[in-house]
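OP here, attaching both records as promised.
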Amino acid sequence: MAIAKAISLHPSRAATVTERAPKPGRLLERFVIFEIVCQLALLSGALAQFRIFFRTGVFALSIGLLLLLPGRGRLHPAAKVAVFVLVLLVLGMVNPGVNSALSAAAQFAIYLAILAPLFWVSRVRIDLPEMRRVLSLQWGFQALSATVGVLQVYFPGRFQFHISQVVEGNGAGYMSMLRFNNAFGEMVYRPMGLTDTPGAAAGAGFIAVLFATAFLLHERRRWMQALYAATMLIGMAAIYLSQVRVMLLMELICMAAMVGLLTLRIGRGGLRRPGRMLNGRRLMALTGLMSLVVVLGFTWAVAVGGTAVSERINSLTASNPGEVYQQNRGQFLFDTFENVLPQYPLGAGPGRWGMMAYYFGNPDNNRNPFLYSEIQWTGWIYDGGIPLVFLYALALALAMRVAYKIALNQRFAELGALGALVFAYDLSALAATFDGNYFIGGAGLDFWLLNAMLFNAAYHTFRTSPGAVAEARR
C-alpha cells in the first residue's frame, strides 16, 4: 500500500510513539471558522469598505501559517510537485509577456496561498475526531447555505443578499440569464445561498450532500441520521433550483464513486473491529437513500422552481452529454488546446488573466494585454504553459491516488470512509477544471486543505497503531 510507504514506522517503536504523541491541534477548526466568518462578512453592507480584507484574509492567513507556523511533519506526496509549480511561476515572472510585475507577483501569491496547506497542515497533529470536526464545520455551513438558497426561491427578495459587483459588471443581458420564474409566477435569481453570486447555492448543496453521505456511514444517533438525510434532500433541491447542470452531474458521479470505492473495500473482505459498522447491508441502505434523495429533491425543486427547473435538467438528456458539454464549456476546452497552447507553449506570463490582472494589472499595456480564461486549463497555460499543466495535473493525480489508497484500507472503517469522501471530492475538483477556474480561488485552497488533512490524519492513525502499520505493509 502506497500510503504505508509514506507513513511507515517500525512496529516496535509504535507503542512508544503512542505514549508520547501530543494532543491533536485545533488550528484547522479555527482556520475554517475564519473562512466562514470572512464569507459571511462579504454579505454585510455595513462592512462593504472592508471587502478587500475579507476577500483576501483567508489567503493571507494561509501564507502567514506557511511562514510562521513552527514545527515539521510528514508532507503530502503532492507537496514536492507543488514546490516545482511555485518555482516555475517564479521563473515565469521574467517572461517577456508579463503584463506587469505587480500582477505577476500577485498571481504567484495566490498560487502560494492555495498550495500552502500542503506544507503547514503537516505541522499540526490531526486525528480522526479532529478531521471529523473540521468536516462537520464545513458541512454545517454549506448545509445552512443550501437551506438559505431554497428559501430564496420560496420567498423572493426576503433572504436575498447584494449581488457581487463583478457579476453585475457582466451587463443586463447576463444578469437576465440568472433569473427565472418560480412555480408561483415570481421572478427570482438562481439561489445564491450565503454568497453574493446567483447559482452558487449549487456548490453548497454539493458539499452538503456529499459530506452527509460519508457521515451517515458511521453515525449511530438516530436524530443525527435524520439530520444528515434532511440536508441531503435540501442540498439536492438547491442544486436543481440553481440550474447548474454540471454540479448535478458531478454530484451523481461522486456519489457513485464513493459507493464504488466502499463496495470494493468491503469486497476485499476481512473488515475487523473497529470497522464492523460498514457492511454490505448498510451500504445498500445508503445507496437506496441516495436514489430517493435524487428523485425527491427533483420533485421538490420543480414544485418550488416551476418548469424552468425541469426544462433545464431535461436538457441534459435531450442530446448526447458530450454534445451538451461541447455546446457549452467544450468550446473553451477546444480553443485552449487548438489555439492557446500553440500560441503560449511556455506560458504568456503569470498575472495576465483573472482577478489578479483586474486588481493589479496594467490596462494600458497594449503589448501584453489582459487575457481571458473561462476554464482552469486555459489559465494554467497562460501562467506556465505545458510545464505548469503537467505539474499541476501530476499533483492532482497524486492527491487522488493517496485518497484512493486510504479509502481501501481495511483496518479503520471511518478512515476508509473519509478517504472515499475525499477521493470523490477530488474527482469533482478535477471535473470542475473543465468548467471553470477552480484552482485560483477559495475552492482550490479548500481542496489542498482537505487532502493534506486526510493524509495527516492517516499518518497519525497508522503511526500510533502497531497493528495498522503491520497490516499496511502486507
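Record two, same layout:
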Amino acid sequence: MRTGILEGIPAMIIFMTLGGPYLTGYLLYLGASSVEVGIATAIPALSNVMQLVAALAMQYLTNRKIVLVVFASLHRILWVATGLIPFIFPEDMRVMAYLVMMLIAHICNATGGVVWSSLIADIVPARVRGTYFGVRNALLSTAGSVSLFVSGLVLDHYGEDIGYAFIFVVCAIAAVINVFALMQYPNVEFEKSRESDIVKRLMLPFRDRAFFKTSMFIAIFLFFYGTVVPFFNYLMLDVLSIGYSWVSVITIVFYVAMIIAYYCWGKLNSRYSTRQLMMWALPIIGLSCLAWGLIGWLPALPVLILIHILLGAGLGGYNLLNFTFIIGDTPKADRPVYIGVFTALTGLMTFAGSTAGGVVFDWLTAMPRNAQLYSMTLSIGLVLILMMAIWGSRVFGASRLVPWRRSHRRVFRRFMG
C-alpha cells in the first residue's frame, strides 16, 4: 500500500503536468485547432477501450507485475518523448505526430491500467479502500499541484520555448523514478475467472443488471461531460486570453478542491454506499458548467475559481467513487472483465463527447465571444443536472438519501401547469 502511494507521486506529476492545462497550451503552441485539442483530450478515454482486450487476456497471464511494469513504462517514455516533436518534425506535421504518439502511449497505459486496478484491488483490504484511496489521491494531487504551479511560473517568466523544455525535463526525471517504483510492487497471486469460455466471460458484466445499468448511465453522463469540461482550459487560454500563471493558479485551486474532496468522499464512503454517494457527487459537475453564466455579471477570475472549486469537488467524488465502484461492487475473480467493459463503455462515450465538443467549439469560433463562453457550458450544465434529477436517482437507488426527489415531481407538475 505504501508502494502504491510512492509510485503514484511521480506518475501524477506526469499526468497532471502533461495532461492538465499545459496539454492544451502545448497543442496550441504546436499549432493545433480546437478540433485537434478535442481529439487530444479524448485520446485517454478512447484508449481505455484497450482495457477490455487486456482484461480478457489477463486470464492467460501468470505474472501481472511484469505486464504492469512494461506497459506503464512505455506509456511514460512515449508521452514524455512528445517534448522532442518541435526538434524533429516540420511545423505542418507536429500536431499529427503528437496525436499519434499520445495515442500509442495511452493504449499502453490503458493496458497497464487494468492490470494495476486488479493488482491494487487485491493489495488493499476492502474495509479501508475508501479511506486509503482518498488519502492516496490527496497526496498525489498535492504533488501534482506543486509541479503545475512551478511550471506555470516558468512558462510565464521565460516563455513557451524554455517553459515547455523545463516541463518535459521534469517529467522525464519523474518517469525514471516512476519506472523504478513500479518494480517495487509485490506480485500478488491472481485469482482467475472460473468461466473458461471467452465469450461467456465477456458477457458476464452485461448480464449483471445493476452493474450494466449504472455503467450505461455514467457513460452517457460522461458523453455530455466530454463535450464541454475538457474545453475549460481552451476557454480560459484562447477565448478569455488568461495568462499561464493565472491558469496554473486556477488549476491548483481545482486540485486543492479535489484533494479535500478525495479525503471527504473517502470518509463518507466508509459510512454510505458508493452508489449513494455518486448521487451526491455528479450534480456538482453540472453546477460547475452552469457557473460559467456568472461571468456575464461578475469579474472573470473569481468566477473561474468558483467554477474549478465546484469541478474539483464533483470530479474528486466521481474519480474516487468510480474506482471503488468498479473494484468494490464487482466479483473478485471476474473483476478484470468488469473493469474492461466499464472503461470501454465510458471511454468510447467520453471520446465521442470530446470530439463532438471540439467540432462545436470550432464552429463557435466564428460566433461572438459570449456565444463561445455560454452556449455550450450552460446547455450541458442544465442537461447534466436534469439527468441526475430525473434519471440518476432511479439508477443509483439513493432516493431515501435525497429529500428533494419526492418533491421535484410535484414542482415539475406545478411548473408545467
